[in-house]
Amino acid sequence: MRNILLILVLLAQPVYAVQPDEMLDDPALEARAREVSKDLRCLVCRNESIDDSNAELARDMRLLVRERIVEGDSNEEVKEFLVSRYGEYVLLKPRFGGSNWILWGAGPGMLLFAGIGGMLYLRSRSRAKAPGEASLSDDEAKRLEEIMNR
């Protein structure tokens, strides 16, 4: 029983939300549509591709992708059309450029900033006097002498 279950798990194919009535008759065009769809984000489900989402908007986007492919658009033209319509957030892998420079550079920039801050802090701590090294003022020394001689 365990072996059968293991075999079924290993043979299981990924489940797509694409409905049979959405699929194109031409297998080559359908493969292109799947290729484009896997890089597009469902705007309702957030981090799912439109192929994996059951949302109504994802279905509309899948149909739109297939329409554009049938009309003769290339894969990049289909993506550009969807970006112009829904914004760059529709791409699962954002582009490296434009306003995304801030997003791409924020992580490494903050790490560098924290590293420099940490090094400066450790450097200032190594130069600081130890608490026992502070000398007493004359008044404090006299008072200490009085206390010790009692």
Brief rundown of the structure:
With 150 residues, the chain is mostly helical. The protein has 2 domains: 10-90, Helicase, Ruva Protein, domain 3 (Orthogonal Bundle), CATH 1.10.8; 100-149.
What keyword list fits this structure?
about 150 residues; mainly alpha; about 0% strand; elongated; membrane; heme; metal ion binding; transmembrane
| Helical percentage | 55-70%
CATH third-tier fold name of the largest domain: Helicase, Ruva Protein, domain 3
User: So what's the overall shape?
Assistant: elongated
- Determine the structural class based on helices, strands and strand pairing: mainly alpha
The strand count comes to 0
Number of domains: 2
Quick one: CATH superfamily of the largest domain? Cytochrome C biogenesis protein
The largest β sheet comes out as: none
Mean pLDDT: 82
Low-confidence stretches: none
User: Any idea what the CATH architecture of the largest domain is?
Assistant: Orthogonal Bundle
Count of DSSP-assigned helices: 6
What is the CATH first-level class name of the largest domain? Mainly Alpha
User: What is the succession of H and E elements?
Assistant: HHHHHH
Distance between the termini: 88 Å
Strand content: under 5%
* Cα Rg: 32 Å
